[in-house]
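Quick start: load a record and inspect it. Here is Two component regulator with propeller domain:
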Amino acid sequence: MHRACYKLLVLLMLLGGTGGKVLAQGFMIRNYNVKDGLANATVYTAVQDKDGFIWFATPTGVSKFDGRRFRNYSKKDGLTDNDVIKLAADSRGRLWFFTLNGMPSYYSNYVVHSESNDSTLEFNSHGHYMQYAFENGAQNIFFLNTNNQMIGYDGRKTGYDKLSETHPDIFFFLRNDTIYKPLQSAFHLLSFKDIDNPDQKVFPVSPYTLDDETFVARIRGNPVVIMRNMLYSYTVKDAICFFNGNDWGIKNEITDVCIENDNLWIGTQRALFFIKDFFRGGRNITKLLDNHYITSLLKDRDGNIWITTFGDGVYNVPFKNFYFNYLDNTNGLYSHSIFSVLRDRKTGMLLVGQNAGVLNTMDSSRHIRRHNVDTSSGRNSIFSILPYRNDEVLLGADNGLFTFNTVRQQVKKLKGFENMKDVDVDPSGKVRVATKNQVTLLDGYTVSLQEPLITSIASRDDTSYYLGTNDGLYYGADQTRTIHPAFGQDERLRQSIKDLKWINGYLWVGTSDQGIYVMRSNKVQKHITTANNLASDICQQLYYDGIGRLYVATNRGMSIIDVKEMTVTRNITSNDGLMSDDIRGVYYQQGWLYVATSNGLCYFQDHNLPVDTVPPTVYINAIRYGDSTYLPSTTFVHLYKRKASFEVEFGAIAFDLPDLVEYQYNFASDTSSGWTTTMSNIIPFPDLQPGAYKLLLRARKFKSDWSQPVTISISILPQWYQQWWARGIVILLGLLGILAILRYIVRRIKQGEKRKTEYNRRIAELEAKALTNQMNPHFIFNSLNSVQHLILEKEEKQALNFLADFATLMRQMLNNSRKSHISLEEETAFLTRYLELEKIRFAHSFTYHFSMEAELKDYTIYIPPMIIQPIVENAIKHGLAPKNSAGHLEIKLEMVDDLLYCSVDDDGIGWEHSNSIKTGRLVKHESTALSVIRERLQIIKSFNGSVGKLEIIDKFKSGFGNKEGTLVEILIPIVKML
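Running the structure step on this input writes:
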């Protein structure tokens, strides 16, 4: 509930004591009604529960109040009936509802318990409702209904107690109040006829006085019985009347009573009465809430008084208001707007200046009278009241200067002035009056000042003074009768000034919007603003109490300054109990402070100003997660909801200044720096992730410390897919998926590479075959030349044999050319047949010999076909054929590191000599054959990685002594099989 929702009423004491005087002691009372959230304007009773909430019973349900918000409960919330007549709070923290249907129900742990949700409360009331409740030592609850039957509740069942058979009545419980503790403060009786206690004495007139401490202790410690308009203290032995309404002018029936410290509150069907210091002999009675039906009274733990009414809601008197006295137009003053105040030291009379030329006086008996000054020339508000001569005070009004005799209570006009702004009396008694544009020394002279406009005046001594204007500070002297600027070069003093005070050699300057300047010897010594804790920079009046304190009236309360230290020691505002923050004037006398405001006069003992330093109680109102609302608890456990907001609604129980309650929450468990301050009572946490959290909540009231934090343990549990094992499985599946994808990619790459390798191998084989086939024409050409030569030499038989061997060789060559590898045995057989043919062609001009390592015979060796034949051919044709004598050819085969080593050694004319006699065509042919062999070796390397080698050595030039011929060495990659 916002502060504006409080209805602040200053209610007048309309009736006095036996003397019939109109007294001027008021209370500031707040009213709460339906518009503020109360369930109904008719309220039967009020009770404070164990947690500190105030509950109100109404015909349409109950209201729970924390000082700011009402939470209403009705049948839809679990009540057995909306018409709740009474309430009772037990020691277990349960709040019992007395409904019109007589069915028992109570509130506990945020839930209304009734027979619908609690089988222990099943009960047949037979239409009789509960009137009173009691509790025994075992914390069992007993009710007395309208049929004088006792109903018991022990936590297991509800039923008629066996004592009901003896028809117990209210006297049974009153006689046994040590066993059955009453859960209400007072009892209504029609008479004291207790048939089971005939010896009890009744005293309509008390034999004791209220200054008897023993009697007062008895009243406080025993049940109070209300009988019509009288109050009795009840014991088994006697019932003694300690209050008779007839003696106090109260004729109506008393509805409820409240004993508050030494004060007594009386509620009746027509009004509320307050007797201050009743239990110390006080005789002044205050009548409040006239024409209000008071249904109940409650004093809460903080000392606040709650008043429930029939049809007018609830009224509240804050505890601190008992320290204040209030005056306005509701209790004797002309209006609520106050401009000035003074208390006469001699007579003790309080003088209050108001608008329309009205002076209110209140004598020591608090009797108020109203006096009028001259109002013929306008509104004539009395803005200043100053001590003057014996039995007289000065009254400064808008249009004149007056005196008031406090003994004869008479007003006298001294002199009329137009637009009077201020008046001052110097130590010698001279009176200086400042109007809008002139300064007048009473019974002296007048000095005019056309510009700027004068606002205030302060005497420096008997002969000089300072003026405040709307354009700065000025100085005047009686001797020269002149006025001149006093701000010099300091532009800070050239501004609108509201009031001045000369204190012990220092000039205090209150400005319109720049706070206070303190001057000495025309120089600024100190500047005091809101930055120095001043209530406001708008100063409306300065008042010095003569004992070291300067009071600054502002538009936001009053500041008290220590003039010696030049520091603000205290601020007093409406939050502390003033009727308004718009302060017009201040007066201090003998510990009493009088504050004139735009909403009335407030006076109190300044050393006893109450400060509520007790931190408020923090409570949890609701917990919401996603779209669901849960009962308040300090532990919350729930499965994670995606994109769901977690929200806590909370509050603080504070009945005084609830709008100034601050909250702090901590969600990081960093209590040193992790507090977040808020004025909201709802904290949202969007999309709270799974985990364990701690939320700490605390609050503080105006001027109190922070409360002890309330801790909420929050556990947001992960869904199954958020569990560590589920995440592990997901991660594992993800890794397996990635591995599968990588494996698929690698397999595709390998397959591609394999296809590429196979393709390259196939190409290499085809290239090798093509190269092999490329050599075949040379051999065929040479062989046909040999046949041709034999035919020309008429050696037909030899030619035919040659052709037969040639045909066999050709068939073998064609078979081998289709293969990528042939066995070494096939190769040697092919080479042998080839060499035999070449011997025939060259007329047996050479011999040959094969030398094969024995190890080669243990394996089947495969080599590329037609790779040795070109070397043998070159050795015969270019080494042995040109030789003039017979030659020899040696072919050696050995194994060297898994390669076939083949050497073709001839003793022909040698490599260099052969090249020198060759024609260009022959050189090209030999070069082609050797390059083809080298290329074949390179191709073989490309598809199986084996490295071959071809080397041609001229033996004569390579250190073989005088040997001639050529040695060709070749390392051939092989495939070896057992």
